[in-house]
Design brief:
Elements (H helix, E strand, L loop, with lengths): L3 E10 L2 E11 L4 E5 L6 H8 L7 E6 L2 E2 L4 H4 L3 E4 L11 H11 L6 H8 L3 H5 L7 H13 L5 E5 L7 H16 L3 E6 L2 H7 L2 E6 L2 E6 L1 H7 L4 E7 L6 H6 L4 E7 L2 E6 L4 H11 L4 E7 L3 H9 L18 H5 L1
Parallel strand pairs: 3-8, 3-9, 6-7, 7-8
Antiparallel strand pairs: 1-2, 1-4, 4-5, 9-10, 11-13, 11-14, 12-13
Helix pairs in contact: 3-4, 3-6, 4-6
This protein binds adenosine-5'-triphosphate.
């Protein structure tokens, strides 16, 4: 049974179809990245999974329970890091955690949770109103971990974190997964998804346009990785030998190097073996995969909204773009 399963899940707001006949299945124990440009429908999907929004059509189950009919069975087993959560400015971070523990009737040790999310005891004593964005994010993540949930739903969990905080968040997500927690991780920042997720689903304009591992997606859009081989001696007739290898679409040569475009990943080993058999000495091999940016531009048409929805100002972005 899947931890999350949706069938034909649809949400319309007037003329706008925010989520369009979504069929999605997330397995138990998986870290699943839910990726898409701004306005793709990620938060709307999460809201329907949590019964914060009612579907216009279709159904969804979370941990085997129907999201509409059995929402009360779902909420105690799910930890949620919502986008744009509210904190009580005058309450300390620690009090927030204690409150979450009481509300869930859990028996967590607040200090252990603070440590897991990287908030110091001093920080935890301060009113949350004075927290930086990253500290707020850590506290909200800690609150989501209360009660040792079977499923963690995180909407843009790296939002507001500095690079160190992002790495900590990624390792926290992985360690939760190792404890057996299923993690549903929504993001529009490609690198954050790649670093933690087993599989990703790409949502664009409310529709699921791909579900696969990142490697699988790279292959499905035609591979296109390049491989540069540095040779000990002049290339001679080696370009022709490389061209004859199945899975290599193009070969260009300089005096002592070959650059091959790979359409089948298995060609990488074959070409090295073939060159070696022809008497060549390969000094170095460098492989460059299709960039994540290329991948997601291909999947989301650059994030351009093709319908009447308010145009998202930013498409799916790479981290470097976000930093600009
Ligand atoms: N309550 C609402 N009323 C009307 N339109 C809505 C409502 N909630 C969402 N929408 C619209 O539905 C579409 C999907 O929005 P949603 O917030 O789900 O996208 P998202 O992928 O989470 O985007 P982001 O990455 O910017 O958070 C957008 O066009 C949004 O304006």
């Amino acid at each position: 049974m899947a931890a999350i399963k949706t069938s034909g899940l649809t949400k319309t707001y007037g003329e706008l179809t925010a989520v369009d006949t979504l069929d999605l299945s997330v397995e138990y124990g998986e870290v699943f990245g839910f990726l898409g440009p701004n306005g793709a429908g990620k938060s709307t999907t999460i809201n329907m999974l949590l019964d914060f929004a009612r579907p216009t059509a279709g159904t969804a189950t979370v941990l085997g329970y129907d999201t509409q009919a059995q929402a009360d069975a779902i909420s105690p087993r799910v930890g949620v890091l919502p986008e744009g959560f509210d904190l009580y400015p005058r309450l300390s971070g620690r009090r927030h955690l204690e409150f979450a523990i009481e509300t869930k009737a859990a028996d967590d040790d607040p200090d252990r949770i603070l440590e897991r999310v990287g908030l110091s005891a001093d920080d935890a004593r301060r009113p949350a109103g004075g927290y930086s964005k990253g500290m707020r994010q850590r506290l909200a993540t800690g609150m989501a971990l209360v009660g040792d949930p079977d499923l963690l739903i995180m909407d843009e969990p790296t939002s507001g974190l500095d690079p160190h905080g992002i790495r900590e968040m990624q390792s926290l997500v992985r360690s939760e997964a190792e404890r057996g927690t299923t993690v549903f991780f929504s993001s529009h920042i490609l690198e954050h998804v790649e670093a933690v997720c087993d599989r990703i689903g790409v949502l664009n304009e409310g529709r699921l346009v791909a579900v696969d591992t990142i490697d699988g997606l790279r292959e499905s859009i035609g591979g296109g990785a390049t491989m540069e081989l540095t040779l000990a001696d002049p290339v001679g007739d080696l370009p022709d030998i490389a061209r004859s290898v199945s899975g290599i679409s193009e070969v260009s040569a300089t005096e002592r190097s070959l650059e091959c475009t790979i359409t089948d990943p298995t060609a990488k080993a074959t070409v090295v073996t073939e060159l070696d058999a022809a008497g060549a000495t390969v000094h170095d091999v460098q492989i460059e995969d299709v960039s994540l940016e290329t991948l997601f531009t291909a999947l989301t048409n650059g994030g351009e909204a093709g319908d009447a929805r308010e145009s998202p100002a930013s498409a799916v972005a790479t981290e470097s773009e976000v930093a600009k």
